[in-house]
């Protein structure tokens, strides 16, 4: 950035750099901490905060009814992502916590622990260095809406709320077979998870409070309160069916915690790659219309340069007139000049028709115009032939028809319709062969960048909605 030139312009590469390194989300976290902590010296607080290791850490809560598997899921989760596993026993055993000591006194006299005391214990524990650096998996909290609101009032915000769910009959059956190892604290089940070691079998104990009546009372209490909890965290919770094998529950849980909440960061640069007839232009137009990003078609840019008679257009004219492929340096120059204009660098862009080869993809990256979302639109050649080779145009009205899907309405119109020479089967197959000759190299290049493949042989709205779902949400993380 040249500070001597006014007005200042942020380089197009900054947006890619900012999302890649989480700059937008870092500012969001910093602003949240300022609002929550309200420091008397905000500038010094910001400086100190930036000096610390402030990478985002998982802040996960796992809740569910009795016997839903909270303990097992939470334990595996915390071990896999190397986060702190916090349970009610951990909170009560904290000798440094005044709130924990007060709670134990209440429990020793058979009194219930109030919600504010539980929240104080949670708040004190989550402020320790291990939770701040590694994140946490909080098991069994919040139990009700009041706890949820008190946690939020203390500035404790979860990134994910895992809610395990199963029918009451299944949970009652599970609860009746539960056994506890008093030495390790591990939970076993007489039917589903019985230990093989006879020594462990001999020391297992039947826990208190697992009779049918007691379990039903706990389930009724849980069902009364869970809706209030979910209403407090409407966008970050996910219901997971616990009445399935543990491996499946874990797989769904890991998939959920690897997602990130929708960000307010600007829309990122997009590249659509696919053979002719795959629908790149259609999808690009819809994305541009909905999200106000710039629709950049390489072919259209080249024709505009030629039509405007620019110096670059004169260099391109002979290739356009002879219907030859434009050399990489010229194509890269046309595309990079457009993507560096103010509207594209500030609003974002969706590029199609370029890059076609690995060399062009590398040139785009070297120019500081690396995309953050790359989509391959896959479609069989026969479907492309069907889409393109049956198109007709009425030379009088300009209306476009398709022999199979939208035939001319009258015989007169049908007789005067003509086919664009570029839609002949030979011309289309030549374009398809050219695409396939470069497809493997460019696929390998963008696969390393996390490109997504989409079946383009379906309704355009379906393809658009899938691309939209991956565009508006941040890229998944790799926690587990």
Automatic annotation (TrEMBL):
**In the UniProt record, does the keyword Transferase occur?**
yes
Q: Which domain of life is it from?
A: Eukaryota
Q: CDD domains attached here?
A: ADK (cd01428), DD_AK8 (cd22979)
GO MF annotation terms = AMP kinase activity; ATP binding
InterPro entries in alphabetical order:
Adenylat/UMP-CMP_kin (IPR000850), ADK_active_lid_dom_sf (IPR036193), P-loop_NTPase (IPR027417)
Q: Which family does it belong to?
A: Belongs to the adenylate kinase family.
Question: Which keywords does this Swiss-Prot/TrEMBL entry list?
Answer: Kinase, Nucleotide-binding, Transferase
Which species? Ciona savignyi
Identification of the protein by name: Nucleoside-diphosphate kinase
């Amino acid at each position: 950035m040249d500070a001597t030139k006014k007005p200042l312009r942020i380089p197009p590469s900054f947006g890619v750099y900012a999302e890649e390194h989480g700059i937008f989300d870092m500012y969001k976290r910093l602003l949240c901490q300022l609002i929550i902590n309200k420091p008397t010296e905000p500038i010094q607080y910001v400086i100190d905060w930036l000096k610390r290791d402030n990478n985002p850490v998982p802040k996960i809560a796992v809740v569910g009814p009795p016997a839903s598997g909270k303990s097992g899921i939470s334990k595996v989760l915390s071990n896999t992502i190397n986060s702190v596993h916090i349970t009610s026993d951990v909170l009560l055993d904290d000798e440094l916590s005044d709130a924990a000591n007060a709670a134990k006194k209440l429990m020793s006299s058979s009194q219930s622990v109030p919600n504010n005391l539980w929240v104080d214990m949670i708040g004190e524990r989550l402020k320790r260095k291990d939770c701040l650096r590694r994140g946490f998996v909080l098991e069994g909290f919040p139990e009700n809406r009041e706890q949820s609101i008190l946690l939020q009032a203390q500035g404790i915000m979860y990134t994910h709320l895992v809610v395990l769910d199963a029918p009451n009959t299944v949970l009652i059956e599970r609860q009746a077979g539960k056994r506890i190892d008093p030495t390790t604290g591990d939970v076993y089940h007489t039917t589903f998870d019985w230990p093989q070691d006879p020594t462990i079998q001999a020391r297992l104990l039947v826990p208190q409070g697992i009779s049918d009546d007691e379990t039903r009372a706990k389930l009724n209490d849980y069902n009364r309160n869970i809706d209030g909890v979910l209403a407090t965290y409407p966008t970050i919770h996910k219901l997971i069916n616990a009445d399935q094998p543990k491996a499946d529950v874990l797989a769904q849980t890991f998939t959920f915690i690897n997602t990130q909440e929708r960000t307010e960061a600007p829309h990122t640069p997009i590249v659509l790659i696919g053979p002719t007839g795959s629908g790149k232009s259609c999808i690009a137009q819809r994305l541009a219309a909905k999200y106000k990003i710039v629709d950049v078609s390489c072919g259209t840019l080249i024709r505009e340069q030629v039509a405007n008679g620019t110096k670059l257009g004169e260099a391109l004219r002979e290739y356009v007139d002879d219907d030859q492929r434009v050399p990489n340096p010229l194509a890269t120059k046309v595309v990079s000049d457009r993507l560096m204009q103010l509207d594209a660098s500030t609003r974002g862009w969706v590029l199609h028709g370029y890059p076609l080869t690995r060399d062009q993809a590398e040139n785009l990256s070297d120019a500081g115009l690396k995309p953050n979302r790359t989509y391959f639109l896959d479609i069989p050649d026969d479907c492309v032939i069907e889409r393109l080779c049956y198109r007709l145009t009425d030379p009088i009205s300009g209306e476009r028809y398709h022999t199979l899907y939208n035939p001319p309405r009258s015989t007169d119109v049908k007789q005067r319709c003509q086919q664009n020479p570029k839609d002949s089967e030979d011309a289309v197959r030549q374009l398809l062969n050219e695409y396939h000759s470069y497809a493997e190299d460019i696929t390998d290049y963008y696969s390393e960048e996390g490109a997504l493949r989409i079946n383009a042989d379906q309704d355009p709205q379906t393809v658009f909605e899938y691309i939209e779902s991956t565009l508006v949400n941040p890229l998944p993380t790799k926690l587990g």
